[in-house]
Amino acid sequence: MLGVKENHPTLRATLEMLLDSPVSTRVPMQRVVEWECGHGRIERRELRCSAVLAGKTKFPGLQQIYRLERERVTKKTGKREVEVEYGISSLSGKEAGPKTLLHLRRGEWKIENQSHYVRDVTYGEDHSQARCGSIPQVMAALRNVAIGLMRGAGQRNIAAATRYYAARPWAALALIGLPATFK
């Protein structure tokens, strides 16, 4: 699945026309709506998908197009937010219907929350002073390795795990299989 942003204006406009406009009533489409309550808000997610462009674009392997609308209402304030995302998928309708596409797209957010958010908030990656050569990529790779090792060890709270291993370097060495010769 690939989100289509403004950097592909022609494809984006085509998706909007096919999935949003009055033309969309004539486009064969599948749809799923899911509701979720939690964290002080009510969320509605609606995904509409169609195979109308399969084999008709310069994007090889395009099987489906989709429109994902996320609506959130904060219970306390009543504030309403709506996000709309358009995208393409190489999965056919038989391989992945709208419900599967929605769950796959939500799985990508899980990755975002588990990796990028942790790197930014816990490790302050956006405020890093490392900007020369390939140092930023190396540091990002090291952070990813550290996060992966801690998650592999069953740690869910990476900030707490980072503090734990910083205070116990022998435990950190054990994560990579090195024997702790001191305690």
Describe the protein in words.
- This protein has 183 residues and is an alpha+beta fold.
- The protein contains five helices and five strands, in the order E-H-E-E-E-E-H-H-H-H.
- A five-stranded antiparallel sheet has the order 1-5-4-3-2, with helices on both faces.
- A hairpin with a 2-residue loop joins strand 2 (30-38) and strand 3 (41-50).
- The chain is elongated, with a radius of gyration of 22 Å.
Short overview:
The protein is α+β, with helices and mostly antiparallel strands.
* Terminal Cα span: 48 Å
Number of strands: 5
Identify the overall geometry: elongated
Quick check: average pLDDT?
A: 86
State the share of residues found in helices, binned by percent: 25-40%
> Which structural category fits the helices and strands?
alpha+beta
Order of helices and strands: EHEEEEHHHH
The largest β sheet comes out as: 5 strands, antiparallel
Physical arrangement of strands within the biggest beta sheet? 1-5-4-3-2
**Low-confidence runs (pLDDT<50, min 5 residues)?**
none
How large, in whole angstroms, is the Cα Rg? 22 Å
Strand proportion: 15-25%
Helix count, per DSSP? Answer: 5
